[in-house]
Amino acid sequence: MREGTSSLTARDYERVFRVLERVDTAETLTGFKAALLDALGAELGFRHTTFFSGTTYNTLFQDPEPLLNGRPVALFREYRTDWCEYDVFRLPEARAVLERTFAVSAGELGALPQPALDYVDHWLVRRGVSNAAAMCLTTAGGRALVGVFGDDGSIGAKEMTVLRLLGRQLSAVARGLQPAVRPLTVGHRLSPRQREVAELVARGLTNSAIGATLALSEDTVKKYVSRVLSATGCRSRTELAIHVRR
């Protein structure tokens, strides 16, 4: 039995298994990250989440198109312009713990240097995020960091144990995935964002839900869907879904 898992109940393990089941059908990293953030919300109650990926741990914080759910959607622009450099999970101490245990919370890092302390106290907390945690995954194309942001008491010791157990299993899944959505058919040229939209359409998400997932307005999503349909020759969302699943 791994360290800390003895505190988990049968129900906790069931929730972990349900998360793993929800991501098990993903064939690409794009599908995996959308399924994972959905599962973290539905099964574990983590509704404020992020998924950043890159070729290395250091570059993942500059992911130009991270997946965002909940409160991080509204905070992302300010994060990118003012706070990315001071992200608490960029600290060497945080990375060392993540490499060893797959998950860490900001509260477990002890005394923080002033810039990281400002990131937590003067940005996250003042915007209603009282605690934050991250899971680090190894992917076929590099590394990924899954952020979980909570209110008071929503990320405690048991939740961290669950995230560590999940991180180990999810990392094994992510290593076997294609780094991007595969082309729908020969000759179809879609941008990475268009491919993400196409896969989310195939998962049955509405334009509103896709917008919330990708931090886009609903009107922008409509334009993406229209362009994807035109580029692929599909006449409907259902036909597009069939192409993606092939």
From TrEMBL:
Q: Which organism is it from?
A: Amycolatopsis rhabdoformis
Please, which domain of life does this record's source organism belong to? Bacteria
Q: Which residues form the signal peptide?
A: none
Instruction: Indicate whether Transcription regulation appears among the record's keywords.
Output: yes
Question: Sorted alphabetically, which keywords does the UniProt record give?
Answer: DNA-binding, Transcription, Transcription regulation
InterPro entries given in the database record: Sig_transdc_resp-reg_C-effctor (IPR016032), Tscrpt_reg_LuxR_C (IPR000792), WH-like_DNA-bd_sf (IPR036388)
Q: What is this protein called?
A: LuxR C-terminal-related transcriptional regulator
Q: The HTH luxR-type domain covers which part of the protein?
A: 183-246
* Pfam families for this protein: GerE (PF00196)
